[in-house]
Amino acid sequence: MAEIDLSSISALPVEERIKLAQAIWNTIPEPAAERTAARSWNAGEIDAASWAAFFGKEALLYLHHVDDQLPYEAHRFLQTCGLPKSMLFEGNHEQSISFAPLADPIVGYNSLIGWGIFFDSELDARMSQQLVIGHVNSEAGVASFCVEKTTGAVNLVNIAAIPPQTLANSSILQFAQSLQTAVEWSRQREEYRTIPADFIAQLEDRLRSIDRNAFASADNYWPSVIRTIDHRQGMWRVLGGGE
């Protein structure tokens, strides 16, 4: 094999050599195994051991109190598997997510509303059906992840937003699978030298495969978050106790 003469490259200014190296690097395809893994992904079943192994047991928070308000499946999952204590979505619209309410007796969202001089009894009754399991802090304000008493659906509720209630997932299990998928996708993203053009679409496909209802409206939680992701920003991190 003939040698490649790089003498002309070494004569280039440093800036030009860096640009050339980057251009060459970007033409190198990802290993076939990595591409196949991304496309053959599927959501696995969740059990307490594998869930703790994925997130780290110390990063999880469990439902501390017996609560007959919660639907059975939600109650069982939150007691046996739990949810990450805190997460951070780093994107164009950053979100910090905390599931600290699991450590206290579960309350309805209506108990968080400072009604002041305004009181709507019908709205109060509706919001009492939304049981708070977590909070989301973003530039839009503070919203709450809630489990709906009657259906077990997980909603994002913010009485000051329009719309004030949007669907995250149809069940606590699908919500947990979606969180795990988002974190797994983010970890894969960090491994790529060059982000594939369809990588964001892959995340949407994975989340749709878990819960198609979550994408029934563009206002729902996951579609809204995905719209803020681009190829430079947008990933989830599970935060340790000291972060």
Blueprint of the fold:
Elements lengths: L6 H4 L3 H14 L4 H8 L8 H8 L4 E2 L10 H9 L2 E2 L1 E5 L4 E4 L22 H8 L1 E9 L2 E8 L5 E4 L7 E5 L2 H20 L7 H12 L10 H6 L8 E4 L5
Antiparallel strand pairs: 1-2, 3-4, 3-9, 4-5, 5-6, 6-7, 7-8
Any overview of this molecule?
This is SUKH-4 family immunity protein. It holds the Pfam family SUKH-4. With 243 residues, the chain is an alpha+beta fold. The protein has one domain. A 7-stranded antiparallel sheet has the order 8-7-6-5-4-3-9. It has a two-stranded antiparallel ribbon with strand order 1-2. The longest helix is centred in the last third of the chain and has 20 residues. The chain is globular.
What's a quick, concise take on this entry?
With 243 residues, the protein is of the alpha+beta class.
Tell me the span between the first and last alpha carbons: 53 Å
Mean pLDDT: 80
Number of domains: 1
Helical proportion? 25-40%
Oligomeric organization of the protein chains? single chain
Rg calculated over all Cα atoms: 22 Å
Element order, helices and strands? HHHHEHEEEHEEEEHHHE
The coarse silhouette is globular
Major sheet characteristics = 7 strands, antiparallel
